[in-house]
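User: Can you fold this complex?
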Amino acid sequence: MIDIERELEDTLHRVLDPITARPIPHRRELSTGRAFRTVAGGAGAALTLKVAGAVAALAAAVTLTGASLTGSFNPVDWGQQVSATVETCRDNLNSSGAHGIGGCVSAFASQHGKAVSSAAQHHGSGAGTGNGSTNGNANGKSNGNGGAGNGSGSGNSHSNKGNTKTQTRTTPPPKS
Amino acid sequence: MELPAGIRDEAAEHAYTPGSAADFERLYVNTYRRILGTLITLVRDIPTAEDCAQETYERAYRNWSSWRPDAPAEAWLHRIAINVAISDRRHQRIRQAGELIRRLGKPSAGPDPANVAERSVLFDAVQKLPTKQAAALVLRHYHGYTNREIAAALGVPEQTVASRLATARKQLQAVLGRP
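Assistant: Here's the predicted assembly.
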């Protein structure tokens, strides 16, 4: 026998024999204890937490995206508005003979961005000066002249990677 | 034929009826120490080895009615135990990665010395071998299995067993600095 084999046998018996000579414990009844600990403890718990966090983040992202596109937090509204828009775009394309629905749907999203931006403007202009922020692309300027007075208004939306800040300055209505 | 007093009938002692609860209890008592001995070599500490041994018998009991007596029951148990040890090592690696991130570089406390088998360079080297190589070494050099019995226990060809044993010995020799 090779030396290392003999040494290995001696070592294994010297280390293991005292431990295996202990009294035999009662056999554990069938349970799911170990399996449960594997899932609920240690890395299992960390993994579960991460998965739960990811699901929550995904749900939040879907909610915000749906709400920003349709202006409503009700998921039923999102589906209805998008379906209606797609149907309208399809009808328009059929009647015009053009191809590609993407541009039309994109235009809806752009229009909606303006609408939300506008809502933010109104929301922020109660005291004459307001700031609103929303997502979307919207740029608009308006000048108006009344018969007996002057009125002017300007709304600027600055888009930076999808984040639009809207600053509104209003002037008092013309005196009649 | 009746045996003289004091001489055990080993064949009868190790004959088991699949599905019999009483026979499984007898199997447990007859084999627990040897299964534990194997597992201590394959996992990191004694409590883990004891836990894995209980897991082994739980799995075995679930399949006890489908065990076929044409193979030795102990070899069958060893096969289950080695799979349990492989599974435990995998979970241990995942746990260690998680703990490393949680500690962020702080040194770990390490296992309780009372729970660790007696330290020796050779035993440490065996514990660091891949599970299947370490299992082949223990079955061969601690339990005295032949290569054929090891092959039957692990469900692999005899050549594979010989190859694993040779690779394991070479690694041990390298660790010990032997030619």
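The mean pLDDT of chain B is 86. Residues 19 and 62 of chain B are 9 Å apart (CA to CA).
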